[in-house]
Amino acid sequence: MTIAEAAVGQDLPEDREILTWDTFGEAARELAREVVASGFAPDVVIAVARGGLLPAGALSYALGLKACDALNVEFYTGVDARLAAPQVLPPFLDTDALVGRRVLVVDDVADTGETLALVQKIVAKHCEEARTVVLYAKPHSIVSPDFVWRRTAKWITFPWSALPPVTA
């Protein structure tokens, strides 16, 4: 089986964290409980696309929030292969809609932390308060997310990126 997250000519590490769909559902509920227990009551959920789209959707449902948006950022190009810096891609986030709101920024993983730091900086300029949540955080991340489901140094296989794209 070809794995989508491996670039051409790359192999995935054998010792890696594998998240299943069922465990993802449990993780989203646990993170939602953590957010509620903290007293933070977000008005808006912002996904870091693409990896944060599904976690953000699951959290928005678990928290009962309908106000959702996404900021598109490209950084990783393969297993441990990335651009020099994260790049914001169109379509762009409507930052005017964030004024006076409490925002929960959601991503799948804080690996280097550079993407999450960029999105947090962009969002924080426009909203009342921004907090971050990730499924996984790596020990070498430059940011410490406010809410983390698991910490690992391993490469992570997510259920939404475990298979190659569907082609003709």
TrEMBL record:
<protein>
    <submittedName>
        <fullName>Phosphoribosyltransferase</fullName>
    </submittedName>
</protein>
<dbReference type="Pfam" id="PF00156">
    <property type="entry name" value="Pribosyltran"/>
</dbReference>
<keyword id="KW-0328">Glycosyltransferase</keyword>
<dbReference type="InterPro" id="IPR029057">
    <property type="entry name" value="PRTase-like"/>
</dbReference>
<keyword id="KW-0808">Transferase</keyword>
<feature type="domain" description="Phosphoribosyltransferase">
    <location>
        <begin position="17"/>
        <end position="161"/>
    </location>
</feature>
<dbReference type="InterPro" id="IPR000836">
    <property type="entry name" value="PRTase_dom"/>
</dbReference>
<dbReference type="GO" id="GO:0016757">
    <property type="term" value="F:glycosyltransferase activity"/>
</dbReference>
